[in-house]
Design brief:
By secondary structure, this protein is an alpha/beta fold. Helices cover 44% and strands 16% of the residues.
């Protein structure tokens, strides 16, 4: 079986490629010609076959889908690859993914695995709207589908990119800081994607994905302080301030980030009990993640 990975140079997609090739599976990775050469070299060394193309180019998607049995789509313009008019929410997260679903269906792909966002991220905003539209399009496609809905990624939401710079002793807290969040690690999402290829429980299923425990941001700060042995200075941004920020934003990415912060401030608890019965996979704890993160700093 050959599996096409769309988003192969990303956090989750790259790990999916590593896991599949380590199992001896045939992997085709869709990559842009403008992609980071080091990331392309990594994919080549793993043994991935490269398909040069772009979610903004429907013809390249049709070619990439030929002869594959499954597609795993993790690509997104956010949070790090956003380029207005070229790689953005409208062109990539919405239209590009809709075109990919259509191309996969036309090519006879049997199983399409799509990475979306947690149901708790339920405010209207550009990225969320695009992902929900793609979900519905995929469900109606006739292909066997699996929709993965991970919560807040530790790699993003416990990083300086969103103001959580624990290594330098400071962190921005959205909301009260007491709301429970089921933080999840990107490699764990990759494991669920790979398992979904063969687990019957993944057929025509929507899987809400979180980590092993719902911890508040303040509990996470305490973990950082315990492990690092230093105090972290906190700056609070209220839900009201975030709502005003979203209302004032004119760029779709800024609107989306503000909305995601608002959902963060409301909490994102995900009960994994039933999912772990069907998918008995290890989950990374926040404490494990923090230890590795602080060692690498």
């Amino acid at each position: 079986m050959t599996t096409l990975i769309v988003g192969a140079t990303g956090l989750v997609g790259g790990e999916i490629c590593r896991l599949l090739t380590s199992q001896g599976q045939r992997v085709r990775a869709l990559v842009r010609k403008s992609a980071d050469s080091a990331k392309i070299e990594t994919l080549t060394k793993l043994g991935c076959a490269l398909a040069y193309g772009d979610l903004c180019n429907p013809a390249s998607l049709a070619a990439a889908c030929q002869g594959v049995e499954a597609v795993i789509a993790t690509a997104s313009s956010m949070p790090f690859a956003y380029k207005p008019g070229e790689n953005d929410i409208a062109t990539t997260d919405r239209q590009g993914m809709l075109d990919l679903v259509d191309a996969a269906k036309a090519a006879g792909v049997r199983h399409f695995i799509y990475t979306s966002i947690s149901a708790n991220m339920n405010l209207p905003f550009p990225t969320g709207n695009a992902k929900r539209e793609v979900e519905q399009h995929l469900i109606g496609s006739g292909m066997t589908y699996t929709i993965l809905r991970p919560g807040y990624f530790m790699e993003v939401w416990l990083s300086p990119a969103v103001g959580f710079d624990a290594a330098n002793g400071q962190a921005v807290i959205y909301g009260s800081g007491t709301q429970p969040i089921s933080w999840i690690a990107a490699p764990d999402v990759a494991r669920f994607a790979v398992a979904s290829l063969t687990n019957p429980a993944a057929a025509n299923a929507i899987l809400e994905l979180g980590g092993p425990a719902a911890l508040s941001p303040l509990q996470v700060v305490a973990i950082y302080e315990e492990i690092s042995g230093r105090t972290i200075a906190l700056t609070y941004v209220s839900a009201e301030e975030l709502a005003a920020q979203q209302a004032a934003a004119t760029d779709p990415m800024q609107q989306s980030f503000a909305a995601l912060m608002r959902c963060f401030a409301a909490g994102d608890p995900i009960d994994m009990t039933a999912t772990l019965v069907a998918f008995p996979l290890p989950l990374t704890s926040v404490k494990e993640f923090v230890r590795k993160q602080l060692v690498s700093v």
